[in-house]
């Protein structure tokens, strides 16, 4: 199983980035996909998730109205569109997959990508 996250980079505050996470080795449509981030010295923080099947979406409060999670089951890919980025969004962003459930706790996820660094300058 592989989850390959990409799309991170350096952006000024107020800018936008689109993260992608391509998966292989799983039946993608059976899995909810989550996005988490980890700032230096911090634990994993839930950012957003999209369920399997009905494509229900969930966001942490700081992401609501700025971030959009989506998925393309034909491409085995999930996306995190991030707008109006703030310096406090700076972190390594990880995608993760969990079968059938959809959770905010990172402990519930079965598979993880390698992370992509997002740096937002003020």
Structure, described:
This protein is mainly β and 122 residues long. The chain has no helices and 11 strands. It has strands at residues 2-6, 9-12, 17-24, 31-38, 45-50, 57-59, 67-72, 77-82, 91-99, 111-112, 116-121. The strands form 2 sheets. Strands 2, 4, 5, 6, 9, 10 and 11 form a 7-stranded mixed β-sheet that branches. The mean pLDDT is 96.
Helix content: under 10%
The portion of residues forming beta strands comes to: over 45%
The oligomeric state is single chain
Shape: globular
Low-confidence stretches: none
How many DSSP H or I helices?
0
**Main structural class:** mainly beta
Number of strands: 11
What's the story with the biggest beta sheet? 7 strands, mixed
List the secondary-structure elements in sequence, H or E.
EEEEEEEEEEE
Overall mean confidence score, pLDDT: 96
Euclidean distance between termini CA atoms: 37 Å
Radius of gyration, in Å, reads: 13 Å
Descriptors:
single chain, 122 residues, mainly beta, 7-stranded mixed beta sheet, 4-stranded antiparallel beta sheet, 11 strands, 52% strand, globular
């Amino acid at each position: 199983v592989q989850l390959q996250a990409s799309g991170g980079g350096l952006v000024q505050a107020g800018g936008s980035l689109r993260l992608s996470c391509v998966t292989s080795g799983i039946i993608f449509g059976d899995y909810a996909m989550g996005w988490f981030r980890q700032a230096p010295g911090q634990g994993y923080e839930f950012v957003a998730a999209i369920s399997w099947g009905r494509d229900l979406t969930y966001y942490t409060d700081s992401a609501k109205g700025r971030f959009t999670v989506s998925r393309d089951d034909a491409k085995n890919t999930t996306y995190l569109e991030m707008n109006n980025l703030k310096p406090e969004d700076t972190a390594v962003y990880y995608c993760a997959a969990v079968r059938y459930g959809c959770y905010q706790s990172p402990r519930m996820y079965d598979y993880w990508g390698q992370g992509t660094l997002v740096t937002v300058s003020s």
